[in-house]
Amino acid sequence: MISIRGVSKKYGRNLVVDDVTFAAEAGAITYLLGPNGAGKSTVMRMIAGLSRPSAGEITVNGRPLGEFSTTATEIGFGLGAFARNPKHSAARQLRWQARLGGIPIRRIDDVLTQVGLDRVAARPTGKFSYGMLQRLNIAGALLSDPRTIVLDEPANGLDVEGTLWLRELLLDLAAAGKCVLIASHDLTEVAITGSQVVILGKGKVLSDTTNAELLAMGSGPRPLESAYVEITRSSLEYTAGTRS
């Protein structure tokens, strides 16, 4: 479980996250949505311990991240598909990550198979497609078999088969009791797999509802899209023109 209570973040005089409170529960897939500049990436970085909140508290499985002697079994992060050495193979990338986190090396073969990269484990990651890099990014998040998983736009770059694979993976993780938090713009997958949906705008929480409740707010053939557009309308910093 991830609990965020009254969290704010300032960079100088710029308040980019403003009194954000929400929770991501075990056994559920929680999506963090919002327009560009809404504060999603900043919230993710604070959860990962890469940035400190200016105010408020973030706990993972009931404790601040800094209190764990090792965070590996508690939480796994997939925050960037390009965080790798292009000369390293997929297996070597994960070996480095395992050693850094005190994770048994035997887990590497398991997660490479889980994400469908076992046949290209020896290939340099510099020759990977973006979709393959996303799978490697997800493998890194799963490497320690953590109780909580945080992913930033994991569907980016995936083809149709990859999207269907990711959908089943996320549902399986939640069914196994994992807490899954995802920052995303992919409303189709949110509608299919989401349990809870938190929408940010200009650093504030605009909505925190179940997926079913959010869908009920919408209308027309794409109710989630219509609900999202209505909720975020006042928080957009720019809008495209419309044809007359």
UniProtKB/TrEMBL annotation:
Keywords: ATP-binding, Nucleotide-binding, Transport. SMART domains: AAA. The keyword Transport applies. Residues 2-227 form the ABC transporter domain. Belongs to the ABC transporter superfamily. PROSITE patterns: ABC_TRANSPORTER_1, ABC_TRANSPORTER_2. GO terms for molecular function: ATP binding. This is ATP-binding cassette domain-containing protein. Pfam families: ABC_tran (PF00005). SUPFAM superfamilies: P-loop containing nucleoside triphosphate hydrolases. It comes from the Bacteria.
